[in-house]
Design a protein that fits this description.
Elements: H1 2-9, E1 41-45, H2 55-69, E2 72-75, H3 82-93, E3 100-104, H4 110-114, H5 121-125, E4 141-142, E5 149-153, E6 157-164, H6 165-171, H7 182-194, E7 198-200, H8 209-217, H9 235-252, H10 265-273, E8 277-283, H11 286-293, E9 300-303, E10 315-319, E11 322-326, H12 328-331, H13 337-347, H14 350-357, H15 377-387, E12 391-393, H16 402-410, H17 412-416, H18 422-438
Parallel strand pairs: 1-2, 1-3, 7-8, 10-12
Antiparallel strand pairs: 3-11, 4-5, 5-11, 6-8, 6-9, 6-10
Length: about 450
């Protein structure tokens, strides 16, 4: 276990797992002070919106930066759902991209990299040598297009099963543990349903992603979860069909909200907070969202997603998925270039990353400086869950483009109701991946 954890935690840092390092001022480029010239307005888009833990932190940070520099942020952030991603891609295609973007790494950013729409860290450092110097270069967001780094990560993620303990108690079931199997979890869900509660808070219309990941993971293991299927009959193809079929079973057994095929993620989250639903799979960023949404944080915890097959419940999904980009459009603007660099340097200082990361991972050279005694019971539960991990893999969906996800994610209501066969949906996804590879 220690060997596995060292890969994720060794110097990436989760909470305060390493000793405090040097002052960030010694490793990071200092943020900008008062502007030398006239005030600059930056168009910025991030995923720090809605129920994201860091939405309040982000608003506070840009307010402070604006006050310190005299510059202005024109913010157009949105919740990281598929419609938001589609909007970002459309903006880039139409030439309406922002100056600065906090967005996903990997395949989600491929269109921007392939189109020469974002600037590499290498190019930025040719002008500003200290850019992102407080980060570990080996863990920056490498693009699958050309192997270069384009984004500066702020915090990583882990995913787990959030639990409303009050609902479990009212239904007479125990909170799942590391030893709970998938079959036992199904029994727990049935008992909760029979008691008049919704077992699982999830919008299969808007955010089926988390259940997709773990249901597929149940048929694989950490070593091969991240491999895309090449055919419907190979190991990954079979796992995807079986996993999505399990999602269909969750729907058919009535374990999801009655309006799961039309509800928003925010609506199903509120069911969970209001004590009407027991379980919610989400990421580490949700800790703060839950803390903000309730006055009874002791009623909530997070644990491992129950497993079956080769996967252990303690095999989790975790990684670094997002980062700060400077667009080529802004980089080529003499008035905006330095301001973009200064803004991202401000947002990725050791102090700011520590504030945003909280229960997540980072790539800071010095690590975060979190006082564990100040964490909520929910945050501590997240720490303990990651400390007990036996296997780690990142989300496989990050290896798919927006277009390639459509046959599965966008069609999930049709899949779970039987209007589209699971195998057909997976086959369509494979065809899109194959077509893309053939064009390279």
């Amino acid at each position: 276990m220690k060997r596995v954890l060292s890969m994720l935690l060794g110097s990436v840092i989760i909470f305060s797992l390493t000793a405090c390092g040097e002052s960030s001022a010694e490793t990071a480029q200092a943020p900008a002070g008062e502007a030398d010239g006239p005030p600059i307005t930056l168009n910025v888009v991030t995923t720090f919106a809605g129920e994201d833990t860091n939405a309040p932190n982000y608003l506070d940070a840009i307010a402070r930066w604006q006050e310190e520099t005299g510059n202005t942020i024109n913010d157009a952030s949105g919740t990281a759902v598929e419609t938001f991603k589609a909007r970002i891609i459309s903006d880039f295609e139409m030439g309406s991209e922002p100056d600065v973007l906090f967005y996903f790494n990997g395949f989600d950013a491929n269109p921007f990299v392939e189109g020469g729409k974002v600037v590499s860290i290498e190019e930025i450092r040719s002008v500003y040598p200290d850019y992102a110097s407080n980060m570990k270069d080996s863990m920056l967001g490498t693009s699958p297009v050309d192997g270069k780094n384009y984004s500066v990560p702020m915090n990583g993620y882990w995913e787990g099963l959030f639990v409303n303990k009050g609902v479990c108690e009212a239904a007479g079931v125990e909170v799942p543990t590391a030893d709970t199997t998938w079959d036992e979890f199904m029994t727990i869900c049935q008992t909760i349903k029979d008691a008049g509660y919704t077992p699982i808070a999830a919008s299969f219309a808007e955010v089926p992603h988390y259940w997709f990941e773990f249901c597929i993971y149940n048929y694989l293991d950490p070593a091969c979860h991240n491999i895309l299927p090449k055919t419907i009959d190979d190991e990954q193809g079979v796992a995807w069909v079986n996993g999505i079929t399990d999602m269909k079973t969750l729907y058919e057994r009535g374990f999801l909200p009655k309006n799961t095929l039309s509800a928003t993620d925010g609506e199903t989250f509120q069911l969970f907070i209001d004590g009407k639903a027991a379980f919610l799979i989400d990421g580490s960023w949700k800790v703060g969202g839950i803390e903000e949404a309730t006055d009874d944080i002791d009623n909530f915890t997070v644990t491992y997603v129950p497993a079956k097959g080769n996967r252990k419940s303690t095999d989790i999904i975790s990684g670094m998925s997002s980062g700060w980009y400077i667009t080529k459009k802004a980089w080529n603007d003499p008035e905006k270039q330095k301001t973009c660099v200064d803004f991202i340097t401000y947002m990725t200082s050791d102090e700011m990353v520590t504030k945003f990361a909280s229960v997540s991972t980072t790539v800071l050279k010095n690590g975060t400086q979190i006082d564990r005694s100040q964490l909520s019971p929910l945050a501590v539960a997240g720490l303990e869950m990651v400390e007990g991990a036996t296997g780690i893999t990142s989300a496989v969906q990050d290896h798919l483009t927006q277009e390639q996800r459509v046959p599965i994610f966008n069609a999930m209501p049709d899949i779970v109701t039987g209007r589209v066969e699971v195998s057909d949906a997976v086959a369509q996804m494979i065809d899109l991946v194959t077509a893309a590879l053939s064009q390279e």
